[in-house]
Specification:
Helices cover 0% and strands 67% of the residues. It has 198 residues and is mostly beta strands. It has a domain of 138 residues: Porin (Beta Barrel), CATH 2.40.160. The strands form 3 sheets. Strands 2, 3, 4, 5, 6, 9, 10 and 13 form an 8-stranded antiparallel beta sheet that branches. It has a 3-stranded mixed beta sheet with strand order 1-12-11, with no helix packed on it. Strands 7-8 form a two-stranded antiparallel ribbon. The N terminus and C terminus are likely disordered.
């Protein structure tokens, strides 16, 4: 009789390097700062799990990541403490094996699936601290949690008689530092760059 479909979970943690650029606009009212920013970055390194039900080389890798987020915070002295949330999108590569040997009724059977490279949309939330150290220059440290949703993979036997799925969820915990230059576009009553308000 055919093997019953089943689902297996894949959980893994690994550290990787991230680098990229961002643009944004901030509006400060007294001590309150509102803004919007977008960023894009490449993630270097793998994020694989090599021990799920004995299958080698499974897992997935997010190769690039971008976000468009709102930002709100409170400024004091030259510091800004803020929270941020918005939309995230990323490119993910499933590197599960193309073929897995299983059995149907005791008969060895090849279950096959195609590699999937896709772009998916999710959300990002986080918080950070920014410090203005020169006229228009500031540095920041920021944490983001990114969830790009599920990236499952299904294996099917010849003729579609039986199958099973590995369920994988793409989540990233990102800690990053940044260097920002602030232009004076749209500022009231000034033609030259302004000294950072925080």
């Amino acid at each position: 009789m055919p093997a019953a479909p089943f689902a297996a979970g894949n959980t893994n943690n690994s550290a990787r390097f991230i680098g990229g650029v961002q643009v944004g606009y901030n509006w400060q009212i007294n001590n309150f700062v509102l803004g919007i920013e977008g960023d894009g970055q490449a993630l270097v390194g793998s994020n694989n799990n090599n021990n799920t039900f004995g299958f080698i080389g499974n897992g997935s890798t997010t190769s690039f990541l971008g976000t468009v987020r709102g930002r709100a915070g409170v400024a004091f002295d030259h510091f800004l403490v803020y929270g941020t949330a918005g939309v995230a999108f990323g490119g993910s590569n499933n590197n599960w094996p193309n073929t897995i040997i299983g059995n149907i009724g005791g008969v060895p059977t090849f279950f096959t699936a195609n590699n999937s490279n896709n772009t998916r949309i999710g959300y990002a939330v986080g918080a950070g601290v920014e410090y203005a150290f020169l006229n228009n220059w500031s540095v920041k440290v920021e944490y983001l949690f990114v969830d790009l949703g599920r990236n499952d993979r299904t294996y099917i036997a010849p003729g579609g008689l039986a199958g099973f799925a590995f369920k994988d969820r793409e989540q990233e915990h990102i800690l990053r530092a940044g260097l920002n230059y602030r232009f004076n576009w749209g500022s009231y009553g000034a033609a030259a760059p302004v000294v950072a308000a925080y």
